[in-house]
Amino acid sequence: MLIQLLFYFVMVMVVALFRYLVFDAVDPELLGAALLFPVGALILYVLTKHIEKKEQAYVPKDVKGWSFYHLQRSFSVPKPLFEGDQKRGDLKRYYESKRRFIIGEMVSSNWYVSLEIKIDGDLYQVKWYRERRFSMKEHWEIVQNGELIGQAGTLANSKGIGKRKEVIEFRIGERTLQTITNPVTSTISVHSGDAAIGTLKRNHTVSNVSVMEVGNRDLEALVALILHHFYFK
After folding, report:
1. Distance between CA atoms of residues 105 and 93, nearest Å
2. Which of 31-40, 52-61, 150-159 has the highest mean pLDDT?
């Protein structure tokens, strides 16, 4: 949104300059409206910094599973990741280039979703990549501590027109996992075959807190739930 406001400011100023050069006309109302965009961008920037501090200060209360506090859809500052009341790591979204950052922020916050997930001594990198131009599917590489361990991709037409089907399929080593959103409860579940092995849902007390339950501390299932949450939210 911040990038969008600055872009609108530039476009309005270009129009104002064009009117002046071609018609020798100055529109005070147009210039006044243009100034609203950088003012709005400044207010949004201050608000964003406040939200970042609030997210980083999150400490879970009466949460037994894994959890994190999520207010911003797009972010570059790490969010703490807890298991119960113990901080186990951080989450961070990033863009691999400035071009992707600008396009993603202007068009859609779920474009070019890449994540870094640190859990104890392990670093998981979920890297977006383009398999084919104009493809309707999204793809990611999953890297653990610098080693490629798997890939993920949305199923065909999962974001198509009509009934929305939110599914991502993961192939990690010899495992195949799927994450699916329940359209009624908005709960995300991760499946191995026919068995559900984990869930992500909103905390009942604080709706911006996402709580995850996975069996046997399955970190790969945890990574799958987090990617699904940030891509489809």
Report:
1. 13
2. 52-61
Name the DSSP letter for residue 120.
T
Give me the phi and psi of 196, to 5 degrees please: -80, 125
Beta bridge partners of 123: 118
Q: Which amino acid is at 157?
A: N
Q: How many other CB atoms are there within 10 angstroms of residue 28's CB atom?
A: 8
**C-beta of residue 111 within 8 angstroms of C-beta of residue 129:** no
**pLDDT at residue 16 above 60?**
yes
Q: Which two tokens stand for residue 15?
A: 């129009």
pLDDT band at 59 (very low <50, low <70, confident <90, very high): confident
Residue 64: how many other CB atoms lie within 10 Å: 11
Is beta strand 86-94 parallel, antiparallel or unpaired with respect to 79-83? antiparallel
Measured distance CA(137)–CA(140) in Å, rounded: 10
The backbone torsions φ and ψ at residue 204, rounded to the nearest 5 degrees and listed phi first, read -70, -30
Q: Taking the complete model, does pTM exceed 0.85, yes or no?
A: no
